[in-house]
Amino acid sequence: MSYVDDYKRSMSDFEGFWRDQASSIEWFTQPETIFSDGRWFVDGELNTSWLALDYHVQNGRADQDALIYDSPVTQTKRRYTYQELLDAVSQAAGALARAGVVKGDRVVIYMPMVPEAVIAMLACARLGAIHSVVFGGFAAPELASRIDDAEPRLLITASCGIEFDRVIPYKPLVDDALGLSGHNVERVVYLLREQCEISLSGREVSWSEFVEGATPADALPVAATDTLYILYTSGTTGRPKGVVRDHGGHAVALRYSMSLVYGVRPGDVFWSASDVGWVVGHSYIVYAPLLTGCTTILFEGKPVRTPDAGAFWRIISDYGVNIFFTAPTAFRAVRKEDPDAMLLKDYTLCSLRTLFLAGERTDPSTYEWLVDILGVPVVDHWWQTETGWPIASSPIGAETLPMKSGSASFPMPGFDVRILGADHQEQARGTEGDVVIRLPLPPGCLPTVWRDHERFDASYTRHHPGFYHTGDGGYFDEDGYLFIMGRTDDVINVAGHRLSTGEMEEIVAAHPAVAECAVIGIEDADKGQVPVGLTVLKDGVNIDHATLQSELVAMVRAQVGGIANFKRSLVVQRLPKTRSGKILRQVMRKIVDDQAYEPPATIDDPAILDEIRTRLVDEGVGLIALRSE
Ligand code: COA
Ligand code: AMP
Fold first, then answer.
1. What is the pLDDT averaged over residues 468-472?
2. pLDDT above 70 covers what percent of the chain?
3. Which of 20, 177, 210, 534 could form a disulfide with 143 if both were Cys (CB 3.0 to 4.6 A apart)?
4. Tens digits of per-residue pLDDT, 229-255?
5. Which residue range or ranges hold the Acetyl-coenzyme A synthetase N-terminal domain (predicted)?
6. Per-residue pLDDT at 582
């Protein structure tokens, strides 16, 4: 396999290239039409759950571990062979069918990191039902808005999640969400966990009762273009976007990524320390490892304090992990607790071949630390919920090219990445601009937004005609390495979690004392970025700033969740605006990000910028990297 050859062919003969890749999976009906009208493999038929389970059982992997569940927070370890996982999934699919779920129905899964979450996902896929997993850290209104948009027949959840040693009861959240939602969910299935007992009534049923006695269901052949799942992600407003993933392109792209990007072979142990609620969890905890015949690890815990900062090393050593993938923020947390990696000495990491990092830019200091302590290639690679697999990486499965700290290396085959200026012109090497991808996007990427194709166009294809708009800014250096410098829109990355500042603004603006506001992301040494609210008070309102801050913090926590890490707000007299009254968020971000900030001429009163800067410092927002001060 040659990266350069693959890349060139994916550009010059994209249908031929992807036809060849499609032959790496077993179809029920082989596709003849490779690409038509924006969709991949349109006349192919397959089933993703069959490919992930039955195929391997029939091809000699029945007794190999498919999934290892390691949960330090509940002191539980459990292994599922491919045969056992297939049995559990077939029975759960039978239970869904018994409950009336048919192809095309939606099922929302709001669960912590437990095997039943994976089983429920694969059970939906088996029937051609569409799952929509909601991250367990989201608050009730977030769950409600996803239920409203997806209109599921069923909601599958658990009695609680566990954060370190804290039990998070889910039932109150679920009850609130169902109360807020305008959609009527027929049944709510609860996995009852011993850490939190609840009583059930009406439409509620326990997971064990739900699956008990169900007749195992076979995998249903579906069209390659049928929807496998909807995964909501933050956009620029409070309404999350339902990213649609289809069966065919997804399976082909993930199989290809496992061999080219990750250098994985069937039988390898692949561990992605993320959460099934995020795209990384969908692609690289569940689908890609299982489609490839690997053993995947489901870790219910954190990198630190479970029980210490050696949790990552323990798992790699205990299970012989070959490929490890996590977010840089997780390693920043480990390094903070154990800067000299003393805990590493207790473990043998000889199985580990490569470490992959994504979710946010890897800061050079964390990168160098990891290279030093691990002695294996450390690959920063870049992608998004929308693409489902890496846009740029080092192609570890083909060749080990030199890496540059701070860069996500090179575009992967199928992704024609360009850097465009505001005038739609391509930027010279070294010059920053919008990072875009020439259409069509390769298989695996979103074909549309759930039931809102207009939003797909508005969000992704209109900024630069003919190109997919990633929302990231960046540049290619002289050697062709891609550097992703951060979002250019109202999306921020907090501890590897993608959040919308626009949504937080809507919440802050609802406070009765607030006349107008802006929420901006500022650099943070641990979380990468954290949101800060800047508020202008209504005339005549007299509220203590500390009280206002604690009320706003509580509001954002109740409506988005603790993961927003919204902990600071500042009162300012005015917000910088254009002459037409548009708040200049980008400008405010630059205040804290730029070495030498030059206010643009469009601002009414440049002095306000100095005031905000002074206030940000005066109020002691200690974590802000105010490089200009
Ligand atoms: N359920 C309920 N609450 C949750 C939660 C969940 N699933 N996940 C996080 N929270 C809560 C935390 O308990 C914390 O609450 P607190 O403010 O009361 O302390 C708050 O949300 C903030 O969480 P976070 O910023 O994630 O901090 P943390 O200390 O809990 O964890 C990391 C730090 C680095 C381990 C974690 O952020 C992480 O794993 N990030 C990587 C994310 C990721 O995998 N992204 C995908 C790309 S690979
Ligand atoms: P998500 O959709 O949650 O996976 O978040 C995608 C966003 O995370 C991207 O648009 C980037 O802003 C950011 N991101 C992911 N990986 C990287 C990376 N390796 N370097 C820089 N930013 C990244």
1. 97
2. 93
3. 177
4. 999 998 777 788 999 999 999 999 999
5. 3-50
6. 74
Residues in CB range of 454: below 8 A, 6 or more apart:
none
Residues 393 and 534 in one domain: no
- Which atom of ligand 2 lies at the shortest distance from residue 484's CA? 21
pLDDT tens profile 363-413: 999 999 999 999 999 999 999 999 999 999 999 999 989 999 999 999 999
Question: Which residue out of 71, 73, 159, 163 has the highest number of ligand 1 atoms within 8 Å of its CB and is therefore the one to mutate?
Answer: 163
452: helix, strand or coil = coil
Model confidence at 614, in pLDDT bands (50, 70, 90)?
low
One-letter amino acid of 424: H
- Point out the ligand nearest to the CA of residue 114: 1
Residue nearest to atom 32 of ligand 1 (CA): 330
Q: What is the CATH number of the domain that holds 161?
A: 3.40.50.12780
614's tokens: 């002074």
pLDDT at 368: 95
Residue 523's Cβ-side half-sphere holds a number of Cα atoms within 13 Å equal to 16
Would you call 609 helix, strand, or coil by DSSP?
helix
Q: Is residue 426 situated within a structural domain?
A: no
* Residue 333 in contact with ligand 1 by CB distance below 6 A: yes
In this structure, the residue with its CA closest to atom 23 of ligand 2 is: 360
In a domain, 86, yes or no: yes
Question: What's the confidence (pLDDT) of residue 236?
Answer: 73
The total number of structural domains in the chain stands at 2
* Residues 6+ positions from 271 with CB-CB distance below 8 Å: 296, 297, 299, 315, 316, 319, 321, 323, 324, 325
Q: Among the bound ligands, name the one nearest to the CA of residue 329.
A: 1
Region 148-154 average pLDDT = 98
- Residue 30 CB partners (closer than 8 Å, separation 6+): 22, 23, 44
Q: Please give the distance, rounded to the nearest whole angstrom, from the Cα atom of residue 488 to the centre of ligand 1.
A: 24
**Per-residue model confidence (pLDDT) at position 153:** 98
| Nearest alpha carbon to residue 297 among 72, 496, 126 | 72
Q: Among the atoms of ligand 1, which is closest to the Cα of residue 326? A: 48
| Chain segment 33-87, per-residue pLDDT in tens | 999 999 999 999 999 999 999 999 999 999 999 999 999 999 999 999 999 999 9
> What residue numbers bound the domain in which 604 lies?
494-628
Burial tier of 323 (Cβ tally within 10 Å: 0-12, 13-18, 19+): buried
Do 404 and 534 fall within a single domain? no
Q: Region 510-531: what's the mean pLDDT?
A: 90
- Is 366 among the domain residues? no
Q: Is the model's pLDDT at 137 over the cut of 90?
A: yes
Whether residues 135 and 256 share a domain: the answer is yes
**Residue of the CA atom closest to atom 8 of ligand 1:** 137
Ligand 2 centre from 382 Cα, in Å? 6
Query: Residues 346-353: what's their mean pLDDT?
Result: 96
* Confidence at 605, pLDDT banded by 50, 70, 90: very low
Gap from CA of 381 to ligand 2 centroid (Å): 9
Residue 627: predicted pLDDT: 30
- Separation between Cα atoms, residue 230 and residue 171, nearest integer Å: 23
Tell whether 190 and 277 lie within a shared domain: yes
Which residue's CA is the nearest one to ligand 1's atom 37? 495
Judged by its nearest atom, the ligand closest to the C-alpha of residue 168 is 1
CATH number at residue 588: 3.30.300.30
Ligand nearest to the CA of 387: 2
